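User: structure tokens for this one?
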Amino acid sequence: MNAYWAASQQSQQHPAPMLSHPQLNNQWNNSSPAQSQFMNGTNAVMNGMSNMPMNMPAFNMSLFQQQILHDALALSTPVAGADDERLLIDTLVNARARKDNYKNALNSLHGKNGHSVILWKDFYLEWKDKIDMHVSVSLKNKGIPDPLPMIKVAKKPTPASFQPEPSPPSSPEQVTKSSGRHSKTSISRSFLSSSSSSGTKLPSAKNGHRSTINSITAHAPSYNSRLPAPNAEVKIPHPPSRSPSPPTKVVAHGRGNKFTEEDREFFIRFIQWRLRCDPNLTRNDLCDQLAEKVPHHTSQSWAAHWSNNHDLPDKILAAAYEEAEGYDEDTEDESSEEVVQPSRTRNPRYYKESSVEEDGQDDQDADIGDEDDDFVLPSFDESAMGKGGDPFTDADFALTARYIASFDDFAKTSTRQRWKPWSQRYPQRSDKSWAEYYRRQERGERLHQLLISSRRTDLSRPSCSCRKNQKSGCSQGTFTETRSL
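Assistant:
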């Protein structure tokens, strides 16, 4: 009894140390019976593992690691030697004989001669040409046909593959004119202009037939949008006799509008028409004018369409530039002659059917000349000009004509140089609006009458000339202005 009292007194003097997390102890004490059973089971498992020999888990892990290291070292030997090469060749020959692929054949070599499949594949790729040659020889010696013959892939033709040959001139005049012609500064334009007057040389035919194709004997090429266009054989269609009507059909596609067949046809005909009237127009000018005529496609969309289908429009543009240069040379030659020879006026190759149109235009000019006495010169009152969005007035017409006459050479200026200052002076309309108004009035009867009447005034003397009939009067409506005399 005394011993028990002494032990209790000692425990009171030295109480047992408390755990550092009393809340955790309370949590376990207040846990559910299921949690208590789980903890009891975990303690039992740990007690059982503590009774196992300490060296048993370490021994098993070490043995497994040693086995992995041994296998890795055994399969890391590089492929080399005649035996390995012979084994690889025989395996590939057997694969060819049973019409199997090389991938399965190389995978079957994994572990052979102590090499992994990666090393076998690396060895084959390194000596592929030599091994393939031995495989072909082995197949031939065994009389086994090669089931995988080599297939030749046709290369996509390039512009360099076309070898153009100049066609013989159709008249002696073209020989003299072509000798003095200067080379183009742009590579693309020079290539297109040279290809427009050339044919493609073909192999010599039998039975004495012609071995070349020129503009006379050429066959009509077949076109396919999926094939590269034969630039040397693209034929320029005849230009329209009047301004083409813009398409009205709009087909929505994605975030924009789709280029329909009517849009594509109008694209070519409009370019021909505008370049016929003004050969100095640039590609950007034409795209801007296309956007004004067909507003459901922007200027950037027309430029992208031009780039995607550039063969024919580029050739039309190059032919117009070439024709303009030839016309300038003809004008210089004819200016030194006393006798005017209208028959020597150089026409483009694709304007052979324009003689009837020119005769009809000359008749219209004669009728206008008879009626110009009844024409009254519009007023130059700026206050009478139309506002933005309103129709153009006679004052707009008169002031625009006087502005055009103020240029030294209006035809050689770009669209931006023409109408940007004019729109800044009269900001009620944009430069594109003024350019479109000029385009609509360019071939109009009122504008021609105004130019004729202006010659009798002290304002200026604008003369309307065309690059096709410069000496016979205005037939196309392209302006070439001169200062007042």
